[in-house]
């Protein structure tokens, strides 16, 4: 397959000026990302502050028109963007992966453009009325992760722009080219200074939350880093939206047909090769169908094609970086030492490349094992047996994290009753991780706070103003 290069040529810098970014599957250099500094951040924030009043003055209708034009541009360049994303992040083109992610960028950009947010009348009697209006905040600092770098950047950038803010975005140092490419598309339609990407190290990212010129911070990443952002934001009282780590639990109720839920269950666990905050990370299955669910998942894991992302037909790819590979390998090795049963997988796949790890199903494991208690963020699912639903709910809720959860059952009413008891920002029934651009999404407990998407997401990047008369 021929890899298109025009957008890459526009964003990469000479080798002498940049940092080499490797192909996740082959470790060959794709291009060179700029190495921005704290001084570059200061310049970007100053430019964003200068550009913000005029951008805000355009009004919602014009900003929405521009965002829809950007969505058209994303679609026109979709294949090139997907190929770059596949190489840098590792996810294959096919399946719910690179092409899917680029398509989602267009969808979420349009949703931000088209979602209505009218003033809300909250009190009205004869001679008195109170309305809530939503104004721009100013400059938004958007700090993104490496697992869905383009899509999550759009979640942060598009609503911020729609509401009249300007944005300084800081991508992960593992996947800067994808976000620079996305910004290249956006900036074909935006005034100068409205959107700037700062491609620097963690020190540059750490300077954003407390920066005097930042009014709002949006962050997707680990709980540990989220706590540091909260501390840093005390310096400027920046508003925060934090989508942090998840150790999502799923509960399969008795009477469920394993074959009927197999596909949704597999992708709930293994989407993006398990590298998804809101993926299913630990699965509690009733004793009456435990063996059948384990066997079904293992069969699917063994059958799914894994390999380099640019090779058509693959749907599972490598771990994105060595650090994450080591975490996944260490958690599976620990489970094996504890006596857990590795049903399928449980080992690297060096014949595919240095960071490939086989899709793994682990059975006969309990809470207390690191693989159950910690977020693995890789192609591994521990399956835990239960006999009493109250016990399963208690164990599912025992985690400090509460991003998502799921209940699997042929009895919709029974599933809803269990869902009401689970401590998570979103609980899916007979699926896991499916997102909708108009449905609010956010975590509870140590998985962060604030919501994204739809009208709730627009409000999160705006300053509410009450007008009483």
Write the layout of secondary structure elements.
Layout: H1 6-11, E1 18-22, E2 29-34, H2 38-57, H3 59-76, H4 78-89, H5 98-114, E3 120-125, E4 128-136, E5 139-143, H6 149-162, E6 166-170, H7 176-187, E7 195-197, H8 202-206, E8 216-220, H9 223-232, E9 239-243, E10 248-252, H10 258-270, E11 280-286, H11 290-303, H12 322-337, E12 341-344, E13 360-363, H13 370-373, E14 380-386, H14 389-397, E15 401-402, E16 404-408, H15 412-419, E17 426-429, E18 444-445, E19 448-449, H16 454-460, E20 462-468
Parallel strand pairs: 5-6, 5-8, 6-7, 8-9, 10-11, 10-16, 11-14, 13-14, 16-17
Antiparallel strand pairs: 1-2, 3-4, 4-20, 9-19, 12-13, 15-18
Helix pairs in contact: 3-5, 4-5, 4-7, 5-6, 10-11
**Structural class by sheet pairing and helices:** alpha/beta
The percentage helix is 25-40%
The radius of gyration computed from the alpha-carbon positions, rounded to a whole number of angstroms, is 22 Å
CATH arch. level architecture of the largest domain: 3-Layer(aba) Sandwich
Q: How many beta-strand elements?
A: 20
- pLDDT averaged over residues: 97
Structure overview:
This protein is an alpha/beta fold and about 475 residues long. The chain has two domains: about 260 residues, Aldehyde Dehydrogenase, Chain A, domain 1; about 180 residues, 3-Layer(aba) Sandwich (Aldehyde Dehydrogenase, Chain A, domain 2). The protein has a seven-stranded mixed beta sheet with strand order 12-13-14-11-10-16-17, with helices on both faces. β5, α6 and β6 form a beta-alpha-beta unit. α4 runs antiparallel to α7 and α5 packs parallel to α6. The protein is globular, with a radius of gyration of 22 Å.
């Amino acid at each position: 397959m021929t890899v298109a290069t025009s957008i890459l040529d526009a964003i990469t810098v000479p080798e002498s000026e940049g940092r080499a970014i490797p192909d996740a599957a082959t470790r060959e250099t794709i291009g060179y990302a700029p190495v921005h500094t704290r001084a570059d951040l200061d310049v970007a924030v100053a430019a964003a502050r200068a550009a913000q009043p005029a951008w805000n003055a355009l009004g919602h209708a014009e900003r929405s028109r521009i965002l829809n034009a950007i969505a058209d541009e994303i679609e026109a360049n979709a294949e090139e963007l997907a190929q770059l994303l596949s190489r840098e992040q590792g996810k294959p083109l096919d399946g719910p992966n690179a092409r899917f992610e680029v398509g989602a960028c267009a969808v979420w950009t349009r949703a931000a453009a088209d979602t209505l947010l009218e003033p809300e009348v909250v009190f009205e009697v004869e001679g008195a009325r109170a309305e809530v209006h939503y104004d721009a905040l100013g400059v938004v600092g958007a700090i993104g992760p490496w697992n869905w770098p383009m899509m999550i950047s759009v979640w942060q950038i598009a609503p911020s722009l729609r509401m009249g803010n300007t944005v300084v975005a800081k991508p992960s140092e593992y996947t800067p080219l994808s976000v620079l490419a996305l910004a290249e598309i956006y900036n074909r339609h935006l005034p100068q200074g409205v959107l700037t990407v700062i491609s620097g190290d963690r020190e540059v990212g750490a300077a954003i939350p407390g920066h005097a010129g930042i009014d709002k911070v949006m962050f997707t990443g680990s709980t540990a880093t989220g706590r540091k952002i909260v501390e840093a934001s005390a310096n400027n009282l920046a508003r925060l939206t934090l989508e942090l780590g998840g150790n999502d639990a799923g509960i399969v109720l008795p009477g469920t047909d394993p074959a009927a839920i197999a596909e949704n269950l597999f992708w709930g666990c293994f989407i993006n090769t398990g590298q998804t905050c809101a993926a299913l990370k630990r699965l509690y299955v009733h004793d009456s169908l435990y063996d059948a669910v384990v066997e079904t998942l293992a069969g699917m894991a063994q059958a799914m094609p894994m390999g380099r992302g640019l090779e058509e037909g693959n749907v599972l790819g490598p771990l994105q970086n060595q650090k994450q590979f080591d975490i996944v390998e260490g958690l599976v090795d620990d489970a094996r030492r504890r006596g857990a049963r590795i049903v399928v997988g449980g080992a690297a796949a060096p014949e595919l490349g240095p960071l490939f790890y086989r899709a793994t199903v682990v059975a006969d494991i309990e809470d207390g094992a690191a693989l159950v208690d910690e977020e693995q963020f890789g192609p591994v699912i521990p399956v835990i047996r239960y006999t009493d639903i109250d016990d399963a709910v208690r164990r599912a809720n025992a985690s400090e994290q509460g991003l998502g959860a799921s209940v699997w059952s042929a009895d919709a009413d029974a599933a809803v009753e269990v869902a009401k008891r689970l401590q998570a920002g979103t609980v899916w029934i007979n699926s896991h991780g499916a997102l909708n651009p108009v449905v609010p999404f956010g975590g509870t407990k140590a998985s962060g706070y604030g919501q994204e998407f739809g009208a709730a997401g627009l409000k999160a990047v705006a300053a509410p103003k009450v007008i009483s008369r």
